[in-house]
Design goal:
With 183 residues, this protein is an alpha+beta fold. It has helices spanning 2-9, 14-55, and strands spanning 68-74, 77-87, 90-98, 105-114, 117-126, 129-140, 143-148, 165-175.
Length: 183
């Protein structure tokens, strides 16, 4: 009550109010800086763990048998890679991209398997159109991960296959469920 009377009487110390606001702003900036540091450290730990997980996979040899079914799910989307046959470095298979509430596609996927990399042509039908595009996968233990790279203007081939990056967030896991997956 006494402080209220001082304020009304005009004797309230305005520099004290300014210094209180200044101190609270300093604390606010400290909190923001600490949050930025925590987020940066979290990102570093995440990327370090992702890279170490990729490097901890067993070595790949070209003689690996890859025939079989591999399935990936991303939300309600389901993707399947089925290797039907393998003859040396050559393989034949199918790909199905079953997207939830978007265009889906399915078709033949044929190419080569060399040094743990599947590189082939995906010939598919989607919404009544026939298309062909280059698709790459990398062996990831018993599974596969899909590779991405910029494509040429026509959108069918990678600009540089040596710059393909592989995204371990969507893993095509070895599975027996390909027979039940269709569009």
């Amino acid at each position: 009550m006494f402080g209220y009377h001082l304020f009304l009487a005009g004797t309230y110390d305005r520099p004290t109010v300014r210094s209180m606001i200044y101190l609270s702003m300093k604390n606010y900036l400290k909190v923001i800086i600490i949050l930025i540091i925590i987020i940066a450290l979290g990102a570093l730990v995440y990327f370090y763990n992702t890279k170490s997980t990729l490097s901890e996979q067993p070595p790949i040899t070209s003689g690996d048998k890859i025939e079989g079914c591999y399935v990936a799910t991303l939300g309600k989307d389901v993707y399947s890679l089925k290797i039907l046959s393998q003859n040396g470095e050559e393989f034949k298979g199918t790909l199905v991209f079953k997207n939830f509430q978007k265009d889906s596609s399915s078709g033949q996927y044929n190419g080569t398997y060399k040094d743990g990399i599947l590189l082939g042509e995906y010939s598919f039908d989607s919404e009544g159109m026939h298309s062909v595009m280059q698709v790459a996968f990398k062996k990831y233990g018993k599974d596969f991960i899909r590779g991405f790279e910029d494509v040429e203007v026509e959108g069918t081939r990678f600009v540089d296959i040596n710059k393909i990056t592989y995204d371990p967030s969507v893993i095509f896991k070895a599975s027996v469920e390909c027979a039940t997956l269709s569009l």
